[in-house]
């Protein structure tokens, strides 16, 4: 009798376990805590956003939160929710992003809130390899703040809460693909 | 006692295997379903196999989260259930250009960019997209792509990166290149 009950219950228990496991895995993948490569405050998907090797759960995460990413040979998408000291990035503070060009054909740094660009009257959402003003030694600084600043400034608009910094590296060099953990990436410094 | 123990162990193992299979099925269907919903959000969803050329991405770009900054993107919902599709495009000079094909499971199953293409600036690229298993006699320089299983409908994106999104001349130039892409469909 117990055995019959167990057999009847089995699909329901299995469905419940599958649901809980799926929810947990999706939560891990969404919070950037699963199968990612970390490099300072930046992280990226280990297998690429749209690659054939991408895990099912990452495909689900991409379908849910973003959509239609390319594979790692074509573009590496780095994201940062925290500054270089590990503090959450928020609109309350000013940030400077300092670095040299990453080992990639072209890069672009943008700021997103809930996945979209932050509206601002200057319509400036990103800086790239080709329009960032550099120092003579090739280094650059990109500034993020609500108050206006000269040169390489991304306005944060009139917002509150958290935002995400995204660095896209198109046609990354093999060094960045193979040694992403130690790739040369900029640092995010809170200024106030 | 031993028999009951074995029966319970077998039951646990079968339940766990079933849970794993249901997890795989569930997460796969979830991905396909969300991607289909995203595709339905494209204004050209009901006009398959035609490219729609987007303006420079901005805060108003709400089609897909995390839009590509510094880019002008052309999108096409392809449908090769009953047709073969030919795409002709031109590569711009000196800027990143890529064409990518996406399956309903978010797999970017085909990518071609300005560097790895045989054709160079100003030359036509011809890509044939067909359903798996459909035969097609390749003509010179055509690139043949077969859509993956369950993805006879999907998305094609052409991204052209801009040097400076505030440069109106550059926008005009890229906009002109975007419009040079054309598609054609024909029966198997």
Task: Tell me about this structure.
The complex is a heterodimer of chains A (192) and B (188). Chain A has 192 residues and is of the alpha+beta class. Chain A has one domain (31-190): Sandwich (Jelly Rolls), CATH 2.60.120. Helix content of chain A is 23%, strand content 29%. Chain A has 3 helices and 11 strands. Chain A has helices spanning 2-30, 56-65, 174-178, and strands at 36-39, 42-45, 75-80, 95-99, 104-113, 116-117, 126-128, 140-145, 153-155, 164-172, 187-190. In chain A, strands 3, 5, 6, 7 and 10 form a 5-stranded antiparallel β-sheet that branches. In chain A, strands 9-8-4-11 form a 4-stranded mixed β-sheet, with no helix packed on it. The longest helix of chain A has 29 residues, at 2-30. Chain A starts with a helix and ends with a strand. The relative contact order of chain A is 0.19. Chain B is of the alpha+beta class and 188 residues long. Chain B has one domain: Jelly Rolls. Chain B is 27% helix and 34% strand. In chain B, the strands form 2 sheets. In chain B, strands 1-2-8-4-5 form a 5-stranded antiparallel β-sheet, with helices on one face. In chain B, strands 7-6-3-9 form a 4-stranded mixed β-sheet, with no helix packed on it. In chain B, a hairpin with a 5-residue loop joins strand 4 and strand 5 (108-113). Chain B starts with a helix and ends with a strand. In chain B, 36% of the residues are buried. The mean pLDDT of chain B is 91. The interface between A and B is large, with 60 and 52 residues.
Write the layout of secondary structure elements.
The complex is a heterodimer of chains A (192) and B (188).
Chain A: H1 2-30, E1 36-39, E2 42-45, H2 56-65, E3 75-80, E4 95-99, E5 104-113, E6 116-117, E7 126-128, E8 140-145, E9 153-155, E10 164-172, H3 174-178, E11 187-190
Parallel strand pairs in A: 8-9
Antiparallel strand pairs in A: 1-2, 3-10, 4-8, 4-11, 5-6, 5-7, 5-10
Helix pairs in contact in A: 1-2
Chain B: H1 2-40, E1 51-56, E2 71-79, E3 83-90, E4 97-102, E5 108-113, E6 124-131, E7 142-147, E8 153-161, H2 168-178, E9 182-187
Parallel strand pairs in B: 6-7
Antiparallel strand pairs in B: 1-2, 2-8, 3-6, 3-9, 4-5, 4-8
């Amino acid at each position: 009798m117990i055995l019959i009950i167990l057999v009847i219950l089995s699909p329901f228990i299995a469905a419940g376990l599958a649901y809980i496991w799926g929810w947990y895995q999706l939560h891990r993948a969404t919070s950037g805590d699963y199968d990612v490569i970390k490099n300072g405050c930046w992280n990226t998907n280990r297998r690429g956003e749209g690659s054939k090797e991408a895990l099912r759960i990452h495909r689900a995460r991409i379908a849910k939160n973003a959509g239609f990413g390319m594979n790692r040979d074509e573009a590496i998408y780095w994201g940062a929710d925290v500054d270089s000291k590990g503090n959450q990035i928020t609109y309350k503070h000013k940030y400077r992003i300092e670095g040299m060009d990453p080992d990639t054909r072209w890069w672009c740094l943008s700021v997103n809130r809930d996945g979209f660009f932050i509206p601002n009257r200057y319509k400036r959402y990103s800086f790239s390899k080709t329009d960032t003003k550099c120092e003579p030694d090739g280094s650059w600084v990109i500034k993020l703040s609500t108050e206006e600043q000269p040169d390489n400034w991304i306005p944060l608009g009139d917002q509150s809460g958290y935002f995400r910094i995204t660095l896209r590296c198109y046609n990354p060099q093999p060094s960045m693909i193979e040694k992403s953990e130690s790739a040369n990436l900029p640092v995010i410094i809170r200024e106030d | 006692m031993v028999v009951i123990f074995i029966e319970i162990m077998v039951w646990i193992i079968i339940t766990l295997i079933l849970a794993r299979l249901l997890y795989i099925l569930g997460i796969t269907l979830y991905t396909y379903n969300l991607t289909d919903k995203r595709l339905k959000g494209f204004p050209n969803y009901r006009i398959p196999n035609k490219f729609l050329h987007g303006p420079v991405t901005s805060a108003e770009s709400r089609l897909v989260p995390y839009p590509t900054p510094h880019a002008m993107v052309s999108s096409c919902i392809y449908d090769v259930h009953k047709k073969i599709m030919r795409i002709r495009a031109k590569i711009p000079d000196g800027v990143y250009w890529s064409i990518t094909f996406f399956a309903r499971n978010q797999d970017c199953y085909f990518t071609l960019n300005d560097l790895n293409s045989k054709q160079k600036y100003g030359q036509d690229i011809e890509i044939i997209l067909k359903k798996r298993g459909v035969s097609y006699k390749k003509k010179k320089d055509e690139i043949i792509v077969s859509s993956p299983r369950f993805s006879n409908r999907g998305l094609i994106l052409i991204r052209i990166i801009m040097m400076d999104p505030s440069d109106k001349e550059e926008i005009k130039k890229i906009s002109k290149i975007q419009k040079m892409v054309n598609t054609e469909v024909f029966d198997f």
